[in-house]
Backbone:
C-alpha cells in the first residue's frame, strides 16, 4: 500500500512537531528549512570564533527558553524523544526540564519574590486572586490598594466570562484599557499592567488583547498552585532538546533539506502540486504543511494563494514585535535568582536568567574554558529610549546595546548583588544574530507575532480551505492563543489530526490539551453566556464595591457552586433534563432579565444617578433639555432584549452629561479673575443640545458597559471646542443672540470673544495630552485646522452666486462634520474599541455632522420653526447661500435672481419661494440620507444599547425644530 507523503516547510517547533506526529504514524515526511540548522527561534546559536582548542563554541540563542507549568503539548512531545542524560543514563528530553524556585521582580526602589510552587493543591479562583492581591500590595512597589482590588476584579470578571463575551467584547479591547490603566496610579501602570504583559510576550499592554492577556496570565498564576510556574532546560537548547529530536526523527525516517527556502506554491487546479524552493527545485507530495514564521508566510501568500485561501487575506493585519536575547559570559558563577528576574524599571523591558545554575554539565567545555557563568537577558522593548545611551535599542550599535543593558541591570541591584555581578566580569558578550546592522539601521530576521486587540479575526485556522495544504505556527488559532512554542506545537497537532481524517487513517489522533480554568466557575460562565446573548453586562457590573470582603464572599460562593453543580449535573442527567437545556436557558434568560431590572446600575457616577430617594435631583435632571432629549431618544427604542440595558444606559448618560454641565458650572464659578473668564462663564453655562458629547459617550460604550472618566473628559473637551467655534461664529456672522441670550461679542466685545474662544481650544487640547491620548490631540489639531479652512472658504464665498451644492457640502464637512466625526472617534478610542469600530464611528459621526448642519440650514429659513434662541436669517443676511437656497436656485434661477435683486429683504417671500420649490423638504431628505449612510457605517459594530441609542439619537436630530 502506498504511503502518504507529506512535505513540511519549516523546521521550527511547529514543523518538527508535525514531522514527529506524522512519522510515528507511518507517513513519509520531508522537512525543508531555510536555515542551516533546525529549531527555528528555539535553536542554540554558537558564538562564531569563540572556541578554544578542543572546546565547543559558546552557546548563544535567540532568547532563553521558558516552559511554564501550563505547557502540556511540549512536555508530551519531549517525553517521546529519547536522549542520554547528563549523568550518562538514558531517558527522555522531558527529563532535561529543570524546575526553578522563584521569580524575582526588581524595581529601583525595592524587590518582591513570587514562589514558583506553593504547597497547596487548591485551584480555587478566590485563593489565586487573594494571592495576587497580597503579592502586589504587600510588596513595597507602592500599588494603591484600590488599584489592586480593581485589577483583581477585572481578572475575576474575565475568569467568569463566557467565551462569547471574551471573543465578542474583551478580544477587541486592549489590556491597557480593560484594566483602566490611564486613570490609575503610575505604580499600577508600571508594575502591574506593563510588567505583567511584558513578562508574557513582547507586547505592550496598550496593544495586547485583554482576552489574551488575562487568560494566559491566569494560567501562569494557576501554575503556582498546580505544578510549577517556571521550568528551564538543563543545557543549551539544541544540545539537550533539538539535536536529540532531529536524531529521533531521522530514525523514524524523516528527511531534512536545509539551507533552502520555500519561494512559491505550485498548483494543480485548486490543490497544491509542489513547493518551489529557492534553488529552483520543485518538491511534490500528497499533502503540504506551511510551518513558516508569520513574515515568511506573508511573503509567499501571493494572489494565487489568496484566491484559493481567502482566510489568509488578513495576514498583513497581524503585528509583530521584537524580543531578542543578549548573553553576558561571566568569569565567575553568580546567582541573582534561582529562576527568572524581571527588571521592572528597565526602559527596554529586560528579563534575565542565570543559566549555568541549571546546567549540571557545567560550562568548562565551552569557549576557552574560563567562562563560569551565563547571564541570559531578553530585551522586549526596542523602541523606548535607554536610561544611559538615551537611544532606543533599534538605533544603537551592538556595543551600545551591551553597555545599556548592563547598566539597566546594575541600576536595579542591591549594593551587594551589584558588587558580585561587577566582580564576576564580562569575558564575552553575544547578541542574537537575528539582529543585523545594515546601512539602513538595525533589522530583525526573527520578530515575534503578538496578540493585538481584535487580531483573532485576522488569524487563520490550520485548515485554510485548500484540500491538501495547511498552515501551522504560533500565529494560527489555538487554545494556547499567545505566540509560544506551546501554541506552535498545538497547531501542528491540529494539522496532523486533519490529515489523519482526510486520509482515513486508523491511527490514534494527536492528543490535545485545552487550557484549564477553575471548574467551580463554569456555572457562572453559563450564566454570563445567557446575559451576553441578551445584551446584558457581566454580573460583576452590578456589584457596587469590590473589596476584600467581596473577594472572600466570592471564594466561598465558588466553592459552594462547585459542590452543588456536580450534584445538580447528576440529577439533570438522571431526569433527562439535559435534552431540554435550550428551553431551560430561555427561561433562565428571562429570569435574569427580570432580576436585573431591580438592580441599580453601577458606574463611576452611581452616586449622582437619580433614584427613588432623590426626587429633587431627578426632577432637576428631567427639566434639563439635554436630559429630556436623552429620555425621549432612549424611550423611543422598542427593543425588548435591550430594555434593561437601555434603562441603565439612560441613567449613565444623563449622569455623565450632568457631570459635563457641572464641570462647566464649576469652571464658571471658580474662574472669575478677568474679562475672558467672564466670557467663558457665560458661554459654558448656556447648555446646548450636547449632541457631540452624547455621541462621544455612546461611542465609548460600544464595547463596554460602563462610562470611564476618560470618556467624560472627551465629552467635556468636544463641548469646549464646540463652544469655542460658537464664540467665533457669532462674531463672524454678527449674530446678536445665542440660546436666548446676548452673544459674547455683543456683551463683552469682539476681542474678548476671540480670546475666550482661543483659550477654550488651548485648554481642551491640553486636557487630551493630560489624560494621555496624544494621538487624539494631534487628530483634533487637524480637525481644528480643517474648521478654520472651511470657515475661510465660507467667508470668501459669501455672496458668491456661482456656488453649488457640492461646494457647500465640502465646506460644512470641514466646518461641522469634522468635529462630530472626531467626537465619535475619540469616544470609541478611549472606550477601548478596535480599529475597525473606531473607523466606523468616525464615518458615522461625519454623516451625522453633515445632517446636523443641513437641519440648521432649514431652521434658519423655515417659517414654522420654534424660537431658536438665536438671530434668524443670519445666513441670508451675511450672503451665505446654504443648501436649501442652492437647491431652490437650481430649480428656479429666475426666482432666485429676483430675490437677490431685492437684497433678500422680504423674509416671507423667501420662505414661500423655498416651500414652492420643495427646497426645505428635500434638504431634510438629504439630511435623512446622510443619517442612513451613518447608520450603514455602524453595521459591523455589534448590537448593543449604546449602538441603538446612537442610531436613534442621529435620527432624532433630523426631526428637531430648533
Residues:
Amino acid at each position: 500500500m502506498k504511503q502518504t507523503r507529506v512535505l513540511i516547510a519549516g523546521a521550527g517547533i511547529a514543523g518538527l512537531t508535525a514531522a514527529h506526529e506524522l512519522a510515528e504514524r507511518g507517513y513519509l515526511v520531508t522537512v525543508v528549512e531555510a536555515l542551516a540548522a533546525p529549531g527555528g527561534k528555539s535553536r542554540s546559536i554558537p558564538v562564531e570564533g569563540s572556541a578554544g582548542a578542543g572546546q565547543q563554541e559558546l552557546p548563544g540563542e535567540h532568547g532563553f527558553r521558558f516552559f511554564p507549568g501550563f505547557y502540556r503539548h511540549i512536555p508530551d512531545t519531549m517525553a517521546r524523544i529519547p536522549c542520554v542524560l547528563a549523568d550518562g543514563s538514558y531517558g527522555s528530553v522531558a527529563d532535561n526540564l529543570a524546575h526553578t524556585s522563584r521569580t524575582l521582580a526588581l524595581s529601583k526602589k525595592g524587590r518582591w519574590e513570587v514562589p514558583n510552587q506553593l504547597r497547596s493543591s487548591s485551584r480555587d479562583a478566590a485563593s489565586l486572586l487573594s494571592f495576587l492581591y497580597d503579592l502586589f500590595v504587600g510588596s513595597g512597589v507602592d500599588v494603591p490598594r484600590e488599584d489592586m482590588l480593581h485589577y483583581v476584579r477585572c481578572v475575576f470578571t474575565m475568569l467568569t466570562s463566557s467565551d462569547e463575551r471574551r471573543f465578542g467584547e474583551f478580544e477587541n479591547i486592549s489590556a491597557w484599557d480593560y484594566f483602566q490603566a490611564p486613570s490609575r496610579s503610575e505604580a499600577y501602570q508600571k508594575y502591574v499592567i506593563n510588567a505583567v504583559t511584558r513578562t508574557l510576550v513582547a507586547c505592550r499592554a496598550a496593544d495586547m488583547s485583554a482576552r489574551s492577556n488575562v487568560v494566559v496570565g491566569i494560567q501562569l498564576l494557576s501554575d503556582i498552585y498546580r505544578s510549577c510556574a517556571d521550568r528551564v532546560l538543563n543545557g543549551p537548547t539544541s544540545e539537550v532538546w533539538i539535536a536529540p529530536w532531529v536524531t529521533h526523527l531521522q530514525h523514524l525516517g524523516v528527511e531534512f533539506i536545509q539551507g533552502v527556502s520555500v519561494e512559491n506554491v505550485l498548483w494543480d487546479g485548486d490543490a497544491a502540486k509542489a513547493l518551489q524552493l529557492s534553488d529552483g527545485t520543485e518538491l511534490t507530495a500528497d499533502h503540504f504543511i506551511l510551518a513558516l514564521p508569520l513574515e515568511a508566510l506573508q511573503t509567499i501568500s501571493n494572489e494565487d494563494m489568496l484566491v484559493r485561501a481567502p482566510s489568509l487575506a488578513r495576514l498583513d493585519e497581524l503585528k509583530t514585535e521584537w524580543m531578542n536575547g543578549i548573553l553576558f559570559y561571566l568569569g565567575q558563577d553568580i546567582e541573582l535568582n534561582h529562576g527568572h528576574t524581571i527588571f521592572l524599571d528597565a526602559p527596554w523591558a529586560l528579563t534575565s536568567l542565570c543559566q549555568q545554575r541549571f546546567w549540571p554539565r557545567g560550562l568548562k567545555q565551552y569557549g576557552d574554558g574560563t567562562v563560569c557563568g551565563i547571564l541570559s537577558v531578553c530585551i522586549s522593548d526596542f523602541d523606548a529610549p535607554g536610561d544611559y545611551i538615551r537611544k532606543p535599542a533599534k538605533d544603537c550599535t551592538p556595543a551600545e546595546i551591551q553597555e545599556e543593558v548592563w547598566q539597566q541591570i546594575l541600576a536595579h541591584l542591591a549594593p551587594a548583588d551589584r558588587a558580585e555581578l561587577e566582580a564576576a566580569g564580562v569575558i564575552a558578550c553575544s547578541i542574537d544574530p537575528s539582529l543585523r546592522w545594515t546601512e539602513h539601521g538595525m533589522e530583525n530576521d526573527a520578530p515575534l507575532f503578538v496578540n493585538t486587540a481584535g487580531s483573532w479575526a485576522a488569524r487563520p485556522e490550520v485548515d485554510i480551505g485548500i484540500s491538501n495544504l495547511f498552515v501551522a505556527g504560533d500565529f494560527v488559532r489555538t487554545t494556547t492563543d499567545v505566540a509560544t512554542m506551546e501554541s506552535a506545537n498545538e497547531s501542528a497537532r491540529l494539522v496532523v489530526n486533519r490529515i489523519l481524517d482526510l486520509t482515513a487513517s486508523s491511527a490514534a489522533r494527536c492528543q490535545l490539551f485545552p487550557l484549564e480554568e477553575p471548574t467551580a466557575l463554569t456555572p457562572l460562565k453559563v450564566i454570563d453566556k445567557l446575559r451576553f446573548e441578551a445584551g446584558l453586562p457581566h454580573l460583576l457590573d452590578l456589584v457596587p464595591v469590590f473589596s476584600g470582603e467581596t473577594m472572600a464572599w466570592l471564594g466561598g460562593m465558588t466553592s459552594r457552586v462547585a459542590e452543588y453543580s456536580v450534584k445538580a449535573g447528576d440529577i439533570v442527567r438522571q431526569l433527562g433534563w439535559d435534552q431540554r437545556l435550550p428551553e431551560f436557558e430561555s427561561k433562565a434568560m428571562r429570569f435574569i432579565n427580570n432580576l436585573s431590572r431591580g438592580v441599580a446600575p453601577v458606574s463611576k457616577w452611581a452616586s449622582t444617578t437619580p433614584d427613588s430617594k432623590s426626587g429633587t435631583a431627578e426632577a432637576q435632571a428631567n427639566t434639563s433639555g439635554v436630559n429630556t432629549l436623552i429620555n425621549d431618544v432612549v424611550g423611543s427604542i422598542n427593543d425588548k432584549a435591550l430594555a434593561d440595558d437601555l434603562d441603565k444606559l439612560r441613567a449613565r448618560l444623563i449622569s455623565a452629561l450632568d457631570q459635563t454641565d457641572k464641570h462647566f458650572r464649576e469652571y464658571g464659578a471658580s474662574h472669575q479673575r478677568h474679562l475672558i473668564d467672564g466670557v467663558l462663564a457665560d458661554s459654558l453655562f448656556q447648555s446646548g443640545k450636547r449632541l457631540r458629547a452624547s455621541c462621544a459617550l455612546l461611542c465609548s460604550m460600544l464595547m463596554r458597559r460602563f462610562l470611564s472618566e476618560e470618556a467624560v473628559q472627551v465629552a467635556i473637551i468636544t463641548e469646549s471646542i464646540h463652544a469655542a467655534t460658537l464664540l467665533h461664529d457669532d462674531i463672524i456672522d454678527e449674530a446678536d443672540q445665542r440660546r436666548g441670550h446676548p452673544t459674547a461679542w455683543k456683551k463683552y466685545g469682539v476681542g474678548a470673544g476671540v480670546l475666550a474662544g482661543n483659550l477654550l481650544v488651548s485648554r481642551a487640547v491640553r486636557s487630551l495630552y493630560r489624560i494621555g491620548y496624544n494621538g487624539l490631540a494631534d487628530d483634533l489639531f487637524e480637525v481644528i485646522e480643517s474648521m478654520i479652512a472651511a470657515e475661510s472658504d465660507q467667508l470668501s464665498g459669501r455672496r458668491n452666486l456661482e456656488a453649488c451644492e457640492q461646494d457647500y457640502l465640502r465646506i460644512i464637512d470641514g466646518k461641522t462634520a469634522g468635529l462630530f466625526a472626531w467626537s465619535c472617534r475619540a469616544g470609541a478610542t478611549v472606550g477601548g474599541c478596535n480599529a475597525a469600530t473606531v473607523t466606523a464611528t468616525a464615518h458615522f459621526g461625519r454623516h451625522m455632522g453633515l445632517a446636523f448642519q443641513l437641519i440648521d440650514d432649514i431652521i434658519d429659513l423655515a417659517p414654522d420653526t420654534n424660537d431658536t434662541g438665536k438671530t434668524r436669517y443670519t445666513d441670508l443676511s451675511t450672503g451665505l447661500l446654504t443648501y436649501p437656497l442652492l437647491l431652490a436656485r437650481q430649480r428656479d434661477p429666475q426666482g432666485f435672481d429676483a430675490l437677490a435683486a431685492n437684497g433678500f429683504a422680504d423674509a416671507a417671500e423667501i420662505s414661500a419661494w423655498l416651500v414652492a420649490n420643495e427646497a426645505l423638504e428635500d434638504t431634510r431628505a438629504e439630511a435623512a440620507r446622510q443619517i442612513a449612510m451613518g447608520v450603514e457605517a455602524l453595521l459591523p459594530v455589534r448590537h448593543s444599547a449604546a449602538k441603538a441609542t446612537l442610531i436613534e439619537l442621529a435620527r432624532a436630530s433630523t426631526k428637531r425644530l430648533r
User: Anything to note?
Assistant: The chain has 34 helices and 28 strands. The mean pLDDT is 79. The two ends are 84 Å apart (CA to CA). The chain has four domains: 5-48+54-96+234-319+449-502, 102-231+553-585, 321-435, 606-957.
